[in-house]
Amino acid sequence: MSDIVLRDSPELSAPGGHYSHTAEVGGMAFISGQLPVTRDGARLVSEPFSVQAQQVLANVDACLAAAGTSRDRLVSVTVYVTDMGGWPEFDRIYRSWLGDHRPARAVAGASTLHFGAKVEVQAIAAV
Q: Mean pLDDT over residues 2-28, rounded?
């Protein structure tokens, strides 16, 4: 049985609740839901959707790096958005971020997200 390794990224602000940025086990890294929060803890919830989406994906990158992996090793991504009308814009940003890599993905509409964010992303990657 593999040990579970819990990590927080030094590139991100400390988690705002009782969780770790990443949990690693069995050669997989599980990335907690990332919100549009900067390294210094600024919440970008008043910023346009595109700015929030880019920050969220940058935070996912930081978590992946802390786990010793990268976006080209993503196997599954779950996206939560408060307005499905923003979906085409997110998909464009996401496609640019990932390039040719196309992991499994789900998109769910949510009535609210923490701090009033418009987008949140959680992910699973091979280490």
A: 95
Whether CATH 3.30.1330.40 fits 5-126: yes
Which of 92, 89, 94, 51 minimizes the C-alpha distance to 74?
Answer: 94
Q: How far is CA 58 from CA 3, 26, 34, 74, 120, in A?
A: 27, 25, 9, 14, 12
Q: Where are the domains of the chain?
A: 5-126
pLDDT of residue 1: 54
Amino acid identity for residue 114 in this structure: H
Pairing label, strands 28-34, 22-25: antiparallel
CA atoms lying within 13 Å on the CB side of residue 59: 32
